[in-house]
Amino acid sequence: MTAAPGQPARSVLACGEVRTCLLPSVQALDARAAAQLLRLRNDEHVRVSERPSMYALSPEILTGVDCRLPASNGTKVRGVGTVAARAVLTEGRLLQSTAYFSLPATGPDIRRPWGQYLVRPGLVEPFGKLPQQATAEGVLRGAGRGELDLGMISEGLLAQLRRHALLDRRVPFKSSPTRLRWVARRIPAGERASLANFTVAEGGLRTMELRLPEDVPASAAAGLCEDLALHDWLLTTVQHMLDNSRIGAIDGPSVVEALHPVVVHLLHLWMPRAHVDPALAHLWDVLEVKPGFSRQWENLSRRIRDRLALQAVAMPQQALSTS
Amino acid sequence: MTDTAFRETTAEPVTKSVPLAHLSLELGHLYMEDFEAGPKRLGEHFAEVRVWADAVRASAARRSKRPRISTCFLIDDYFTRFSTPAELIPMILKEAEKAGLVIDYLARESSCAVADRIELAESVMHRLVESPPPGSYGSRPPVSQTGWLANGQRTPSTSRSALGAVKGWEPPQETAARNHSVFMDVELWSEKDGKRLWSCPFLAAVWQLARLGLLRHLGEPVLVPKDWEGEDFPHDWDRLPPLTRLSDTKAAFSAYRTCTLMPNRFLAVEDAVRLILDQTDVDAGALQQVAERSAAERMPVPAAVAQRATYVFYEEPGDSSEAEET
Amino acid sequence: MLIFAASDKGGTGRSVTSANLAYHRALAGDDVCYLDFDFGSPTAAAVFDVADAREETEDRGLHAYLIGEVSEPARIDVWADTEHQVLRFPPPGCGRLVLMPGDVSGGEFATSDDNLRRCVDLLMTLYYEFDLVVVDLSAGRSYAVDMVLEATAQPEMRDVTARWLVFHRWTRQHVAAAASLVFGRRGIVAGGVDRGHDEAALRNAIRFVRAAVPDPESSLWSQVSPTQSAWMRKTDGDLKQLASTHGIGYSQVLGSVPLEPVLQWREQLITDEDVLDSQIANEATWQALSQLAVRLTDDKYWEEA
């Protein structure tokens, strides 16, 4: 049977989706402004950390759901509970929102009074037995019509923040948001967390599977995924800017103009693991070996610096020849 | 991230705890009409309340040999302002004493809206999480836009699709209905001249959360009781603290549970309060502190917050409106 | 920048021309997104040759997004998903070309606060992402037109550059209808002002595109009789006069697209292959589209008349 009301139900699966985008503001926000932006609740603190990089984390807000759980094989299992959502701002420049929830292996066959769900925030209970595999695959594939939609919740929060009166709604350069969907299967407490896979798909979609010890909260997994999503966004965005013809083919001052925003707004953002729970920080190592996130970033940064250096060398000559 | 030497306080906020009694017993709630009916009427109230207060104490004694019970009394200074503390409070205390009751804490209703410059009602509003009707897959119902909170799905507004016919009336549906619905829709506030007026049930829900020790502002306790040092009570309600301790009780204002004694005309209001509490996502830190400490004292609280509040609705003493007509 | 493509009536080649403009800009290196807001009869999937990808997106298009059924509208990457032989191999250095299709089953709908909110969110999101966003609106003074007028009047969109292209055919009735769509009592300008737009600014953000214009000097007509030729020149002149009287004269025109069988009959993107190799399309059409595409963002053509 299920846990009695009030007892924390043991979850077997945690799922989430992170959206990452550039903050629509010409200036990066300072710590005070960041705290103001992320103050989703009047009475709760925004966590602000300024070392080793500026990182602000909003309080969590809840969305009530009562619908089918995503399922890859068409199984129809109803789930009721709350999905937690939170937002992160890194260096006052990159905005992320995560929606996530945990699932226990089984739940009651009737809906409880709502207040009982609210005291277990971020938990969605299945009616009956949870089809773990199908649900995990369903979450990674994305919600079908009428299924619990993490994307809708995280996008809703992101849209709300981007409308904030504090922002001037001007981006220093154009860029695409990315989404990272993740599932974490629970393993016994004390075992070591591991990364099963990280997949880069089309259209800015990334998926990730983890194994997460029971004593590590789902919010820590959300934090790790935010960190990975942020660095993946940096790689994706800078790569796209370099691929663009107007940087590849052109020369002259317009190269400086095109690469300027990368140097000013992005190069200093690379700081893997800066705000990741120590119990999960080692998961980065896997991606550092293959494909080598930091290696790729160093390469991209070097290309940018080289282009700018070449330009700086070329400029005086041009100046001479045209005079 | 606690195993490191480096710390940033802004990165690790904490929720302070508050002292907690076993039971917060409310002895009454005074509105202008009660005051206008005179001290005699108030005395009759207290005489009736005394009987039930004894019953509540007897009930609490079943849970604990030495129950910590604090009593409180609420005066409306939000919807209507009448009399002055200097005039009113001694009168209330005198009538209570006559009935053998002691009022430990006295609160002003306006402090459920704003206390010590903290907008409590506003904060609680941001914590409303609507109970999702079946079929809710992630679109967030905007409570803060409508100002109403229901226990189910409303009758659809008579919307016409471009070509579709006008549909007939459809009934509302209570989400947790058993066979049949008891649908309720509660107005949380109204706006007048750009000013927000919180509804009586919404302020009463804030009041319940305060009594249950579940309110915090940026981790700090709110509505902290102050002793009244002066000789006479002030002539202006604004000069009275939001929550005043009137006795030398050791029992804290907030408690694991609440019991409210009130005339049965308030039944609808309090039902609305339960509806609001059932859809409020209270401070997780505070919730955990109450759960742990009540469990340690072997009187664990019900998981759902609304279940921690009980009531006695008594018959109003001597219905004066009928009496006056004769 | 946002470009809204409107037209007085159907059959002006609005969708196919605006799709070609999007294509030209993507070739030039811009990241471009094309939105099919023609809810009554979405055609963009056919123009971009992405029928299969369209099937897959089923009912997750713009219509489903705006009424709140899906969290975001489906996106089709044209380069990756097109069945068109030439489009599938875009030249290196070109920008992204993304299509957001309408829904097959979606009809028109009234603007509510919620779908207005979603419309603003979508336009802002795309504005942050793409160099150019082309929104194809259904013909006439439709709900789609009302919605984007309302959306662009919202304070959060105040600083977003939005320009309007009004497509019309080169006939007396179309000239009058296009003028009325923009300047009439229930026209775009009046509707915009009702919603809080600044009249002068809105007027200045609207330019006309004359579509399917027969050029009397074209070699196509080299065989016609002198009488016919004279008549054509006269009529063309009369139409210019008429357009000018209606306030949509030369200074208000961003460009003209010549009468082009490929656009009229097949509604497709015209590639350089069509012009150079198979020669089914006219060089003049390619030139006209190319010129229009450049003028979209050339402020010189959008200065106050």
TrEMBL record, chain A:
What superkingdom does the record give?
Answer: Bacteria
Note the InterPro entries from the entry.
SCO2521-like
Protein name as it appears in the record: SCO2521 family protein
Give the species this sequence originates from. Streptomyces muensis
TrEMBL record, chain B:
Under InterPro entries, the record lists:
SCO2522-like
Cited NCBIfam families: SCO2522_fam
Q: State what protein this is by name.
A: SCO2522 family protein
User: From which source organism is this entry?
Assistant: Streptomyces muensis
What broad taxonomic lineage does this protein's source fall under? Bacteria, Bacillati, Actinomycetota, Actinomycetes, Kitasatosporales
TrEMBL record, chain C:
Q: Matching Gene3D superfamilies, A to Z?
A: P-loop containing nucleotide triphosphate hydrolases
Q: Give a Gene Ontology cellular component term annotated to this protein.
A: cytosol
Q: Which domain of life is it from?
A: Bacteria
A Pfam family that this protein carries is CbiA
Which GO molecular function entries does the Swiss-Prot or TrEMBL record give? ATP binding; ATP hydrolysis activity
Residue ranges constituting the CobQ/CobB/MinD/ParA nucleotide binding domain according to the UniProt record: 3-115
The record's InterPro entries line, in alphabetical order, gives: CobQ/CobB/MinD/ParA_Nub-bd_dom, P-loop_NTPase, ParA/MinD_ATPase
- Work out whether the entry's keyword set contains Calcium: no
For this UniProt record, give its keywords in alphabetical order, as a comma-separated list.
ATP-binding, Nucleotide-binding
A Gene Ontology biological process noted in the UniProt record is: negative regulation of cell division
Name of the protein in its database record: SCO2523 family variant P-loop protein
